[in-house]
From TrEMBL:
SUPFAM superfamilies: P-loop containing nucleoside triphosphate hydrolases (SSF52540). It comes from Ktedonobacter robiniae. InterPro entries: AAA+_ATPase, ABC_transporter-like_ATP-bd, BCAA_Transport_ATP-bd_LivF, P-loop_NTPase. Signal peptide: none annotated. Belongs to the ABC transporter superfamily. This is ABC transporter ATP-binding protein. PROSITE patterns: ABC_TRANSPORTER_2 (PS50893). The gene is livF.
Length: 235
């Protein structure tokens, strides 16, 4: 579904990512682990076109997209749930969700998609006309994921979805991610500091360290790695 080959990128004259390569198979969940400053959010921005690559290629469903605009990537099937949610606080939940459907021409199609989103996050049905500024952290994260789903993505990029959430809310969010993968056939790239939960839900994992891929393997292999246990699992 998605292939990243020898990508380097950064800000100004400074590279943050160095020769990064990885593959995301269709209909699978792949997690990218790493400490703060490892380059995880930069990688998400590169995949969505918010930051241009300096070198390397990004291939989505057989097409090279590194020169494409963010809007064109969304239309092709890439949708990002950004770190920190980035909702519009003065808009309602309903209005925030519709912001994700800007590529959908038919209002009827938008309403049908909204019903599917509310199936995964029924709490939002009760809060549909509440302002985003009044939401709890968990509700805000549900809106952020729902907004991305409104674009009908083939690949869903999740940047730190558990950040700042209570454990019970983390369970709800991760359960929804797993269901979206199974029920909707979504390919998911999960960037997450909660390595234990990420390794439980994904099939393959990459470890980003200093802007490079330092380790890779199945989640079972990495979960049993002494280095991973020491660095990320408290072992």
């Amino acid at each position: 579904m998605l292939k990243v080959e020898h990508v380097s990128a950064g800000y100004g004259a400074v590279d943050v990512l160095h020769d990064v390569s990885f593959v995301v198979p269709e209909r699978e969940i792949v997690t990218i682990l790493g400490a703060n400053g490892a380059g995880k959010t930069t990688l998400m921005r590169v995949l969505t076109g918010l930051i241009k690559t300096r070198q390397g290629s990004i291939t989505l469903q057989g097409q090279q997209i590194e020169s494409w605009s963010p809007e064109r990537r969304v239309k092709k099937g890439l949708a990002l749930v950004p770190e920190g949610r980035e909702l519009f606080p003065s808009l309602t939940v309903y209005e925030n969700l519709l912001m994700g459907a800007f590529t959908r021409a038919s209002r009827q199609e938008r309403e049908e998609t909204l019903e599917r989103v509310l199936k995964y996050f029924p709490r939002l049905k009760e809060r549909l006309h509440a302002y985003a500024a009044s939401l709890s952290g968990g509700e805000g994260q549900m809106v952020a994921i729902g907004r991305a789903l409104m674009a009908h993505p083939r690949v869903l990029l999740l940047d730190e979805p558990s950040l700042g959430l209570a454990p019970v809310v983390v369970d709800t969010v991760f359960d929804a991610i797993a269901r979206l993968n199974v029920d909707e056939g979504l390919t998911i790239i999960l960037v997450e500091q909660n390595a234990r939960r990420a390794l439980r839900i994904a099939r393959k994992a990459y470890v980003l360290r200093g802007g490079t891929i330092a380790m890779e393997g199945t989640t079972r292999e990495l979960a049993s790695s002494a280095a991973i246990q020491q660095l990320y699992l408290g072992g």
